[in-house]
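Troubleshooting log. The previous structure file for this entry was overwritten by mistake, so regenerating from the original sequence record. Sequence copied from the archived sheet and checked twice against the printout by T.R.
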Amino acid sequence: MQAFQFLVSTIFDLYLMVAILRVWLQLARADFYNPVSQFVVKATNPVLVPLRRLIPGFGGLDIAGILFVFFIGFAKVSALQLLFGNGFPAYDIAVFSLITAIKEVFQLIFWVMIIRAILSWISQGYNPIEALLHQLTEPLLAPVRKFIPPLGGLDLSMIVFLIALQFVQFAFQDLLNALL
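Regenerated output below.
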């Protein structure tokens, strides 16, 4: 039973990451023609294009994309509750869906940063994945670099950002524990 629960959770998490990546790519104004961007667009367009007809963007934010992320989180929590849980009220499912989506955003940012750091050590020349990761992470790292500039060719902004991200994750978890 645990193996099946892991499989269901992983499938939802992977698609949730793709949906979050779609919103993040738009926020960062990343290269639309990058092969990874094209994959993300093609994987999310069947749902997002009709959803955008109903829900327009606002102030540069893709509201339909954000709601899509929430809906995937809702589908994940609902499916897991139907398959493996006792079930609980829709309000609780909605709250846990939002929590799931937020935690997945933290996880995605963490892993994108780690992958970018590893690729920076081993890549040689132009790499489309590295270019896309740079476009996604640079808006997050630039404010850190204002306070901690590179020291002797060593850029500590990634480490500082990851520590801050972990702090925010722990603070979020503490807040959830206090509220729930």
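The chain has a mean pLDDT of 90. Archived copy saved in two places this time.
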